[in-house]
Write a sequence for this structure.
């Protein structure tokens, strides 16, 4: 199954995915409530996006007090209408990918836009892709291996 | 969205306030440089101040929408410097469209301004002549309110955003340094409303796909810019007064775009220029805006700036 994948070496922290996500999902520009979150931890090389990884064994699912989070195939889905915004899932998520949406007063995650994510289409550096995770991983490993042959590239 | 809010900060007294500049109005050019009306009052009282002015499209998520204009006013001379970065967008998310800084910090002290969701706080620290911009940044960064905070430091070569790239010219930064400003930190949790999100989203997607064909800013060789289309742009790219020769080369249109909040620079035509700007404005504000409206407004803006410049020359 195809998923949103990110190549962090290409991400320049422009924030395009973050703004387009909030515009698509909320109808307004609201970066802090976007389901794609840009992490700025200092320095140019330390900027990257985080979003729901649809973990095989999701910590949010176990943490949810109202059991409204479930696995559907490979996707982690949630029924936000039952959410009472306790934030347990947000605390448990190792990716920091669970965001509070003030519009619906609930915690939400990336739902891959039904298989047609706009963030991937607009990513100006090609850091985001919608691909099979295994294939994406192979490509990134190959790319890194090629760069390793030229140490300047890696540095 | 249509009401412009201006934060006024007095470094001398440590006081600050937010005033409403009224509704966005295209016909009078009162959209990107709303601080002009405030400037007139300051001019009468012979007060120097530096203003950061955003446009209605600053921070709206399309390429180059970090557009801002720095206006510095000193001894009745006025200059402006179009730039982009995260600062303007962060200010708008924090509920402020214009920022005017006036006064001078008490002798021997430097001021740190923190803006968080429309709340302004000013703290003072002992001034150190040997403190570099990098050191000042590192100190402010440690106590930034949120991870997303934008930190701007007036450095000798220009205002340095996020310790990486310049968002102003040397003069503006120098004036702020002389006024005793050490740092400006903006953090936010808010956002911007869009009148027609569906159309705006389609336009944004179209623009980003066009942007993909433009040079990519993605590694340590090039500064990261917020929603940028300006690879490797430095402070040297500034355009100053709209001289007659520049008007013919399309600088007027670029100025107009910056006033709206779009810093498209040399890629303005590739990205659709005024036509695309008019569509974005219409979708964003809910009013119907045409290219002719923008041209008329650009001329009015240029007239106002030219008249002001002539007055300055007369006084000289």
């Amino acid at each position: 199954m195809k998923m949103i994948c990110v190549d962090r070496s290409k991400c320049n922290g422009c924030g395009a995915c973050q703004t387009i996500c909030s515009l698509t999902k909320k109808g307004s520009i609201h970066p802090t409530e976007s389901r794609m979150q840009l992490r700025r931890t200092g320095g140019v090389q330390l900027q990257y996006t985080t979003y729901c990884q649809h973990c095989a064994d999701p910590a949010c699912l176990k943490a949810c007090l109202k059991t409204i989070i479930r696995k559907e195939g490979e996707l982690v889905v949630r029924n936000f209408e039952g959410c009472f915004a306790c934030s347990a899932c947000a605390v448990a998520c190792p990716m920091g990918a669970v965001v509070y949406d003030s519009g619906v007063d609930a915690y939400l995650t990336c739902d891959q836009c039904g298989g047609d994510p706009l963030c991937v289409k607009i990513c100006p550096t090609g850091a985001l892709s919608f691909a099979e995770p295994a294939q994406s991983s192979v490509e990134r490993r190959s790319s890194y291996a090629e760069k390793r042959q030229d140490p300047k590239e890696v540095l | 969205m249509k009401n412009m809010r201006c934060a006024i900060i007095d470094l001398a007294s440590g006081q600050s306030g937010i005033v409403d500049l009224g509704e966005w109005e295209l016909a009078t050019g009162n959209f990107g440089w709303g601080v002009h009306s405030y400037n007139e009052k300051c001019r009468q009282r012979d007060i120097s101040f530096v203003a950061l002015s955003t446009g209605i499209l600053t921070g709206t998520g399309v390429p180059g929408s970090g557009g801002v204009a720095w206006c510095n006013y000193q001894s009745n001379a006025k200059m402006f410097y179009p730039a982009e970065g995260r600062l303007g967008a962060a200010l708008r998310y924090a509920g402020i469209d214009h920022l005017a800084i006036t006064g001078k910090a008490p002798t021997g002290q430097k001021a740190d301004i923190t803006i968080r969701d429309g709340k302004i706080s000013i703290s003072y620290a002992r001034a150190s002549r040997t403190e570099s911009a990098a050191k000042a940044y590192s100190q402010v960064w440690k106590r930034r309110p949120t991870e997303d905070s934008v930190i701007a430091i007036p450095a000798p070569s220009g205002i340095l955003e996020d310790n990486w790239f310049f968002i102003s010219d040397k003069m503006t930064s120098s004036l702020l340094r002389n006024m005793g400003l050490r740092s400006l930190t903006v953090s936010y949790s808010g956002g911007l409303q869009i009148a027609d999100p569906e159309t705006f989203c389609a336009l944004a997607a179209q623009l980003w796909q066009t942007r993909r064909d433009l040079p990519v800013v993605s590694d340590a060789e090039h500064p990261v810019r917020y929603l940028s289309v300006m690879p490797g742009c430095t402070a040297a790219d500034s355009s100053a007064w709209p001289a007659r020769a520049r008007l013919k080369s399309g600088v007027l249109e670029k100025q107009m775009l910056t006033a709206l909040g779009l810093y498209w620079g040399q890629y303005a035509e590739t990205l659709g220029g005024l036509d695309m700007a008019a569509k974005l404005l219409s979708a964003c504000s809910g009013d119907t805006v045409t290219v002719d409206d923008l041209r008329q407004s650009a001329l009015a803006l240029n007239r106002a700036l030219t008249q002001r410049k002539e007055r300055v020359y007369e006084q000289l």
